Structures are given as C-alpha cells and as structure tokens.
C-alpha cells in the first residue's frame, strides 16, 4: 500500500508535470532544430516567436469566447490555434523575406545570422508587448481536471491523491499527434524528403533540382506551427506572460543541443531529458521516500537536491555536462 | 569623409546630444546619461575585445557584470562578525570541499578515464558538500535576517572593488572558458548565455553571500554624500557664487565626481585596448579571427589565445559592473536581465563598429543615449498620435504601449545597421 502511495505521489508531482513540460519543450526544440538544420543558424528569436504565436491565439480565443463559441470540456484556445499559426506564419515568412533572405544571398557566416536574430528578437518582443502588454493573461477555459484529487481518492482509497489537469493530458495528446504528423511529413512526402536532403547536403540537393526557396518557406511555416502549438500548450498549462516565453529560450536551446542540434529525434529526447532533470532535481523527495522506505530510514529533511529557483540553472548544467562528454549532443547532431 | 574626421564628428555629435539634454531637459538627466554612457562604453570595449578583435561570441556579459557588482559588496561592506562566528568557517569548509570534489572529478576523468568513478566522486561529493555547507548557510542566514543574514565583506575602500570586480569576473571567465571555449560558435554562445543565468541564479538564492533578492544597500561611496555637501558652509557659498541652490549644486557635484572617476577608468582601458590592438599581439588575434586554420598552421596556440582574450574582455565587463553597482549604491540581483545587460551591449558594439575600439565607445554612448531618450520621445509621439482620439480603451492602450517602443526601436536600429552598414558607424581600419 505504501509503495502504491509512493508511486502515486511520484506520478503526481514528478512524472506527470515532467511529461507535460517535456512535451512543450520538445515541440519548441523541434523548431530550433529545424531552423538550425535547414536555415543553418541558432534562432535567438525563437522564444519571442512563441510569445507572438500564443498572443495571436489568445486574441482569437477571446474573440471566440465573446461570441459564445466553445468546445465544451476542452479549452476554446484549440479552435483558435489554426488562426494563431496562420498569423505567426505570416510574421516569420515576412521576416524571412525582409531580413534573413538578404543575408542568405550573401552567404554570411552563421554567427552573423545569429546576431540578426537578436535584432528580430528585440522587434518581436516589442510587438508582442505593444499589442498585449507585458502582464499575465488568462485564456484557459473548459474543464479543469481530467481526474481530480478527490475523485481519485474516492476511487482508489489511497492516502495519496493523483490529479491530472485537462491541459496536461491535452499537451501530451497534441504533442504526440504533432510529432507523428511531422515525422510522417519529413519521411513520407516529397517536400519533406527534399527538406531532409537539403539539410544533409545543400550542394547536392541543389544539384538534384530542389528549390531552396520552397524548402525555406516550408520550414518557416512548420516552425510557426510548432512554436504556436508549443506556446499555447505552455500557456494553457502554466500561464501566459511574454517574459516567461523569452526565458523559455534557455531550456529550449538546452533541449535541442542536448539531443543534438539538427536532429529531430534528438530534440524530443532532449526535451524530456531537460524536463525530467529540472523537475527531479528541484522536487522535494521527502514524501515519496517517506512512503517507499521503512520508517526507520525515512528522511528528516526535504531531500531536495536544489531549490526550485535553480530550475533554469539545472538545464544548463545538464547542457554543459553533455557538451563536455558528447560535443554534438546525445544523438549525433550537426556542426557548422 | 575619412575615418578620423568621421570619428571626431560622431563624438562631437555625442557631446552635443548630452549637452543638449542638459539645456533642454535637465543637467541631472544629462549627467545620468553621461555616467551610464561611460560605464556602457567600458562594457562594449570588453565585448569588442572578444568579438571585434578575436571573434568570440560571448552572450554571457550579464554574468560578468553581475560578478563585478558582487565584488563591491564582498570588498567594501563591513564584515558581519556575528555571522562569521555562527557559520562562516563552516561555509568556507563546505566550499573547499566542493572545490576539492570538482578537482578530484576532473583529475579522475583525465587520468583514469573511468566514467563510473567520476560519477561516484561527483554524487558522493555533492552530498558531503551539502551536509557541511547547508548547516553553515542556515546558521548565517539566521543572524538578524532583516538587516544582515549574510557574511558581509572585507570592509576595504570601495574603489578597491573595481579591480577586484575585474579579477572576480576574470576568474569566472577562466572557469567558463576552460569548459566552453572548445565549443563551436553557436554552442559557445548558448553555453555562455546559460552560464550567465546560473551566475544570476546563484546570486539571487545564496543569501549568505550577498543577501540574495533582499539586496544589499548603503554601499560605501568613493565620493562625498550630497547631504554633507549641503551642510558644508563653504560649499553652499561657492554654489551661491555660481547662482545655484545648494541642493542642485550638490547632486550635480556628486554626479560630476563620478563622471571624473569613470572617465579616468575609461581612458586607461581605452589606451590599453588601443595599444593591444596595434601591437603584434593584436595582429595575431585578428589573424586568428580571420583564419583560424591558417593561424593554427603557423603555430599559434588558438585555444590558449581564445582563453586569454575571453578572460581579459570579461574582466573589463566585471570592472564596469563594479562601477555601476558603486554608482547605484546598492546590489539588486533581481534586476539583472539579459535584454539590458547582454543584448543591449551587443547592439552597442555592432552599431559602434566591431573591431574598432573608438567605435565601441561611441556605440556605448549613442545606444545608451537612445535607450534613455526613446522613452520620452515615444511618450510624446504617442500623445501626438492619440491627441485627436476620443477617450477610451484604445487611447489608453496606445499611451500605455509607448514604454515598449524602446525594445522595438533597439531591434530596428540593430537590424538596419546590420543590413546597411554591417561594419558599424566607425568601421575597423
């Protein structure tokens, strides 16, 4: 019984939050990895693109709510996501046209493009704050819990409760669908194959008649979709604040690099590695250990390895350790 | 226009902008811009050394600036005897254990190449470290937490904190460089970004060190206090002679005194940077930057030179960070934001002209001037645009959004410069 309680506590406080957070990071990291693999630079504006996409979705969500549209138990934001993706796609395609294309034509060094993306980051950051302001915004509606703590206790008779929020379940389901669709696209369709070919060897791909402009456009649209979905899921699950998204850049980069930049499978693996380490290292294990160990061994302290304020630091310690041991990430990534 | 003339003209423009601010707004604002402009110029000199001359992409400037700020507290605040008695030695012992564990792990990794042994050392060492260290921290933080709860500093004169800030940042840079400089450019950038966040996280959370987010205020000053000047009959008389009241005169005098100190530091660092740039060492660094492979083939130790310049540039940022905290008179770890302390400095270097020391200084002044002045300009612009509009949510929203135009403007400036004048206002010769 105690072991069951320990398992439930572990699932409630570590497994479920980490799986949800990991899925959000993985979607973000997939975008970073695609840009790195195909457009060949680290996009510092990624977090702010996410904030922008979520903002558009929020605006549509509010509009739909005011018209009385809803999805019943599911959040209305799901209806608004396609519009958010469309808005973000327009933004990134426009940016590519006005900003990045010039540098690609000049074949500048990747580090110059990174700097350009810093400029883009400032601009996106400004736009989002001008339109929606810098404060917390709430746009979650629908059913709050899939399984609430009380129901779970009544159902199982355990001391420890398990609560699964709708948004957590939704995150995982949506992430699985999106990742499956992305891999189907990359492996099965003509455009997807040409994207992979372009990423592996640009010159060879050009020789075999792949249109680089099209590959780049498709990449941006996919990235727009990935960041918007990841941003909305994160916003529904936690809360929406432009600054938080700017900060998310750090764990997302860490996830992409830990997995191996340019490698989509690596991005997903990296997302979960980062999420599980962040949650695991900053969680106070007292409760779980208290159930799992015999009374004589039960810990006195909180058994927390690091205080929760070190959440962001954890992702970077992992990043540095992985880079030192495997310089291109866990699954062999690219190097420019 | 040749480069020398252009340099003079642009620096004259900066002088006109600052003096114009004095006449049009207030001399207090003008001196505020001047002081932070001097500090920003030093920071961008440090970054220019790394990027412009050596081609290292460091996005962790904030961390070094913060280490400089920490140095002010550690150097100039009086030690808290009670806290030292309560747990100071235990903390030091804990830290020593931590360092010993790291050294042992590195040695084991290098000599024995046994991954499991390294893991055992690190994990076992971590728990030993926490066992010793945590007790000390609890004891120290319990000492009168509303005013101290930290170990305090060495009680040395505050000017000593500036070189010590440089040393502290250099030490941090050495550790970071040792681990991260082997990485390629993008990876290095992201690693430095992350490490600077770690530095801030430590400063926010380790209360025993510098009170964390509870802040340390009342740092000693290298210049007199305004109130003392106002109480000095001689000063009041002189101020009256200039036709100023004592309050205004005293604030301006203090700001001018800071400006003088900062200008001395800037001139020394600028001269050293110019000498370095023109020396054989500078030529070698640029050769490494332009073609690493060729430089390596010529027998240059690229890794060592990168580490060297990374440490030097970061030390300069540390000095600037210490100066800034001295000027503020308080250390507030919560206010270190990468947008302001890392990315804005990058805008300064790129706009000024990377690879040109005078360009970096110019960029520091111009971008800082804009950072301060875009706000009132945006407010004015927004009230002009909304003047004809009916009162309502939209008008309020537009007026409110003026404060965010600052970021947008910086981004647009950066993009425009990168596009149309990629070598900056004062290009490298």
TrEMBL record, chain A:
Protein family membership: Belongs to the binding-protein-dependent transport system permease family. LivHM subfamily.
Name the UniProt record assigns to this protein: Branched-chain amino acid ABC transporter permease
Principal subcellular localisation of the protein: membrane
Transmembrane regions listed in the UniProt entry: 6-39, 51-71, 77-99, 111-132, 162-186, 218-236, 305-325
UniProt-listed PANTHER family: BRANCHED-CHAIN AMINO ACID TRANSPORT SYSTEM PERMEASE PROTEIN LIVH, HIGH-AFFINITY BRANCHED-CHAIN AMINO ACID TRANSPORT SYSTEM PERMEASE PROTEIN LIVH
The keyword Transferase belongs to this UniProt entry's keyword annotation: no
Membrane topology, record value: Multi-pass membrane protein
Keyword Ribonucleoprotein among UniProt keywords: no
Organism whose genome encodes this protein: Tropicibacter oceani
Keywords: Amino-acid transport, Cell inner membrane, Cell membrane, Membrane, Transmembrane, Transmembrane helix, Transport
Location in the cell: Cell membrane
InterPro entries, alphabetized: ABC_transp_permease, BCAA_transport_permease
TrEMBL record, chain B:
Predominant location category: membrane
Statement: the UniProt record of this protein carries the keyword Thylakoid: no
Domain of life: Bacteria
Membrane topology, as annotated: Multi-pass membrane protein
Protein's cellular compartments: Cell membrane
InterPro entries: ABC_transp_permease (IPR001851), LivM-like (IPR043428)
Transmembrane segments annotated in the record for this chain: 7-24, 30-49, 56-77, 83-108, 115-133, 153-175, 256-277, 309-331, 343-372, 405-422
Keyword Transmembrane helix: yes
CDD domains: TM_PBP1_LivM_like (cd06581)
Keywords: Cell membrane, Membrane, Transmembrane, Transmembrane helix
PANTHER family linked to this entry: HIGH-AFFINITY BRANCHED-CHAIN AMINO ACID TRANSPORT PROTEIN BRAE, HIGH-AFFINITY BRANCHED-CHAIN AMINO ACID TRANSPORT SYSTEM PERMEASE
Name of this chain's protein: Branched-chain amino acid ABC transporter permease
Species of origin: Tropicibacter oceani
